[in-house]
């Protein structure tokens, strides 16, 4: 009996001695959890900042929706004339071996290359793909770099993808370059060869002139791709020079 009482007293003393430690430990855990919750829910921006941010997101979604609903490639009968370069004038600025071909579409000019000995064989086409749109003031610089004259680069790249699907080819790369002092979005692609034609390298150049976005499409056998790219760059430079001179003449 005495042993039982002694053990009970020892257990009671042990429990009483442990109570303050348990309370302090629980208090410390509760404090750490509260402080961690406060850190996780800490708001770094003011309410006014969040209101402006949400309004900017709404405007961006509305603009994206309107862009998707708009036609990407409007038919502009006067588009080529806007460059100030009818076929007779363009031939003086064409690369060596490029000759114009007749076309029924007034928004497109087609060329046959390689018509002179030593020139690059292939084809080229200049087409209007969209109208320029003013850049919204709420767009960031990063977002502006993903657009060309108000049109998303992803939409321009989609034009190339659709053409390559039709031609049985594939897109290789896309990048932006400065040509003759003007921003140009370039998409490269390739089509396989068959019994009638070899493998071909395709380049699509998108640039803005006089309120419109133009696409210069070139294709040539793979071994001539570098020379064709150089000819295309010179051609784009001549287009911009002709656009500037024609706009200056019209203002006079």
Helix content: 40-55%
Query: In CATH's first tier, which class of the largest domain applies?
Result: Alpha Beta
Number of strands: 9
Would you list the SSEs in sequence order as H and E?
Answer: HHHHEEEHEEHEEEEH
Order of neighbouring strands in the sheet with most strands: 1-2-3-9-8-7-6
User: What's the CATH superfamily of the largest domain, by name?
Assistant: Mog1/PsbP, alpha/beta/alpha sandwich
| Count of folded domains | 2
Overall geometry comes to elongated
The biggest sheet amounts to: 7 strands, antiparallel
CATH architecture of the largest domain: 3-Layer(aba) Sandwich
What's the CATH topology label of the largest domain? Protein Transport Mog1p, Chain A
* Average predicted local confidence, pLDDT: 76
Q: Any low-confidence stretches, pLDDT <50, length ≥5?
A: 71-92, 248-252
What's the Cα radius of gyration? 34 Å
Oligomeric state: single chain
Q: Give the end-to-end Cα distance, rounded to a whole number of Å.
A: 122 Å
Number of helical stretches of at least 4 residues? 7
> What percentage of amino acids are in beta strands?
25-35%
Task: Return the structural class.
Answer: alpha+beta
């Amino acid at each position: 009996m005495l042993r039982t009482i002694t053990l009970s007293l020892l257990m009671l003393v042990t429990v009483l001695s442990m109570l303050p430690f348990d309370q302090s430990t629980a208090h410390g855990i509760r404090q750490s959890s509260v402080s961690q919750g406060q850190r996780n829910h800490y708001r770094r921006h003011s309410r006014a900042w969040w209101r402006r941010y949400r309004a900017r997101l709404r405007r961006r979604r509305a603009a994206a929706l309107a862009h998707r609903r708009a036609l990407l490639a409007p038919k502009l009968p006067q588009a080529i004339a806007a460059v100030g370069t009818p076929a007779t004038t363009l031939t003086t600025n064409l690369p060596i071996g490029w000759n114009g071909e007749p076309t029924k579409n007034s928004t497109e000019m087609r060329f046959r290359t390689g018509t002179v000995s030593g020139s690059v064989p292939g084809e080229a086409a200049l087409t209007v793909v969209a109208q320029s749109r003013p850049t919204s003031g709420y767009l960031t610089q990063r977002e502006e770099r993903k657009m060309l004259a108000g049109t998303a680069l992803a939409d321009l790249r989609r034009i190339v993808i659709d053409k390559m699907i039709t031609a049985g080819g594939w897109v290789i790369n896309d990048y932006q370059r400065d040509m003759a002092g003007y921003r140009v979005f370039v998409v490269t692609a390739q089509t396989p060869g068959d019994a009638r034609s070899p493998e071909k390298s395709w380049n699509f150049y998108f640039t803005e002139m006089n309120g419109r976005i133009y696409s210069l499409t070139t294709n040539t056998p793979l071994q001539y791709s570098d020379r064709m790219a150089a000819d295309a760059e010179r051609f784009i430079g001549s287009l911009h020079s002709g656009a500037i001179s024609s706009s200056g003449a019209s203002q006079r």
